[in-house]
User: What shape does this take?
Amino acid sequence: MHNETLEMTKYEMMKKIQEYNFSVIELVLYLDTHPTDLKALNLHKEYTKSLKELKDKYQKVYGPLTIYYPCNKWRWIEEPWPWEGSDM
Amino acid sequence: MWTYDKKLEYPINIKRTNPRLAKVIISQYGGPDGELAASLRYLSQRFGMPDQKSKAILNDIGTEELAHLEMVGTIVHQLTKNASIEEIEKAGLSPYYTDHGVDVYPVSAAGVPFTASYIAAKGDPVANLQEDLVAEQKARATYEKLIDLCRDEPDVLDPLRFLRQREIVHFQRFGEALNGVHERLAQRKFYMSKK
Assistant: This one.
């Protein structure tokens, strides 16, 4: 993990997750119709890795982003929902 | 946001073509008590829920209903993909075949296309959760009728039984969410004013 992520606020970290996530979505659409493009394939590898690392880090501190993240207490219902906006 | 997992919630492997059953099962895809209506109903209502439990249960059941929509679509597809024209005609699927071939299109068993009037979002959490309880019971009842109609097809019965069971669990969870909302409404309210 890059050192810069240590200093990130919750909002900044989520913004970065959304960026990585969008990059993956966009690459997947491209790869669906260009499955042999190695450059795109490597970018997909890079962004899925960054996304996974940052999501793991985010979830440890700010609670689960999916129902498949194990918790010692049920934080799923405690954190605000994405449609509620936020003042972070 | 959502992500897609390349798997069904419960396995479906139907070996025998049977467009007659597809014609009725499609009601749980795009009919009044089907999975499309269920998912849209809960995912639309979740925005207005007053407490964390009811927001979570509508979000998470709404999400599971999308997986059920995929299951019902899979059943319909597997029952029709190899059907001959004769089988389609004999099953009374000629009108459907004319407009949709053997694609999976959201209609009721009677052929009525899906409409948003199957769902409600009333701007009232108690009314919405009561509607959800009714919806789960109606879906359960529909699956029971389908189970009667599919009695000789074990490959179809098995996933239908699973889907019926899920309606019962959802009904239970919605009941608990409604109790939570009632408790919240019954709480004493304190008002503070700045001097």
The CA atoms of residues 8 and 43 of chain B lie 20 Å apart. Chain B has a mean pLDDT of 96.
